[in-house]
Design a protein that fits this description.
Layout lengths: L1 E6 L20 E5 L2 E5 L4 E8 L3 E9 L6 E6 L3 E5 L2 E6 L4 E6 L8 E9 L3
Parallel strand pairs: 1-10
Antiparallel strand pairs: 1-3, 2-4, 4-9, 5-6, 5-10, 7-8, 8-9
Length: 121
Amino acid sequence: TEKFLSAGVLPCLILPYSPAATLNSIIFNTQTPLNLQVAAGEEGMITCRYKTSIFNSLQWYKQLSNARPEHILTSVVDGILTKNNIKVSLNKSEQFSVMSILNSEIQDSATYFCAVETRCV
C-alpha cells in the first residue's frame, strides 16, 4: 500500500512594526520535495530551508484535507526531537530542518508545513 505526503510551502513575510525594518527581517521558507510517495512502513523525509538572521523557533504542522493545520513539533535549539513516529532535526547554522515520518501509515497522508518564528529585536 502506498501513501502520499505533500509538503506545502508556507512563505513567511515578517515585517516588525518599526520604521527601520530591514531585509534581515524577511523570512523565506522552501520545502523539498513538494510531493512524496512512501510505501506503508517506510520512512518519508521533508526538508525545510529558511533564511533569516533573527530565528526564534521552527514549527512543523500537519494539515488534513479540509481541516486546519495541526501543530506537530517546535524546535528551538539544534538537535533531534521525536513525537510518536515523527522525528525532526534542526540545524540553525545551516538554516534547515528535516522532518522524518518513521514507519509511515496511511493516516500520515497529509500536507506538511514548516514555519519559522522570529524574535523581536
